[in-house]
Amino acid sequence: GAAPTGEVIEVGLYDYAIEMPTSLPAGPVTFLLTNYGALAHSFQIDGPGVDVALTHELEPGEQGAFTVELQSGTYSVICPIPGHRENGMSLVLTVD
User: Fold this and answer.
1) Residue 9: which of 84, 78, 27 has the closest Cα?
2) Are the C-beta atoms of 81 and 18 separated by less than 8 Å?
3) Virtual CA dihedral for 8, 51, 72, 75, nearest 10 degrees?
4) 68 pairs with which residues across the strands?
5) 10: alpha, beta or left, given left = phi > 0 and alpha = psi -120 to 50?
6) Per-residue pLDDT of the chain (96 residues; tens, 9 = 90+)
7) Which of 5, 75, 77, 93 could form a disulfide with 47 if both were Cys (CB 3.0 to 4.6 A apart)?
8) How far apart (Å, rounded) are the C-alpha atoms in residues 75 and 77?
9) HSE-up of residue 63 (Cα within 13 Å, Cβ side)
């Protein structure tokens, strides 16, 4: 059976890339974030019923996590640190 927190999705934050699945099922999801880059990074997801960002930046090697309830639809996933989204730290997540 599924854990109470739902699916756990590992997310790799690199210098100017976010590595994670681009489609997920609806329901509770815990994003487990790891910063593999040499710079500080963060994580923000915005879509139907969800607008959540990490409350702090992850320094190189740091991990963080949060849980959201995903509804069907399209979500924007970015690193909200100025300049990072523009350099490629963004993707579109499809939930169904």
Assistant:
1) 27
2) no
3) -90
4) 29
5) beta
6) 444 568 999 999 999 999 999 999 999 999 999 999 999 999 999 999 999 999 899 999 999 998 999 999 999 999 999 999 999 999 999 999
7) 75
8) 6
9) 7
The per-residue b/e assignment along 62-87, b for 16 or more CB within 10 angstroms, e otherwise, is: eebbeebebeeeebebbbbbeebbee
| Residue that the structure tokens 């909200």 belong to | 80
- Amino acid, res. 14: Y
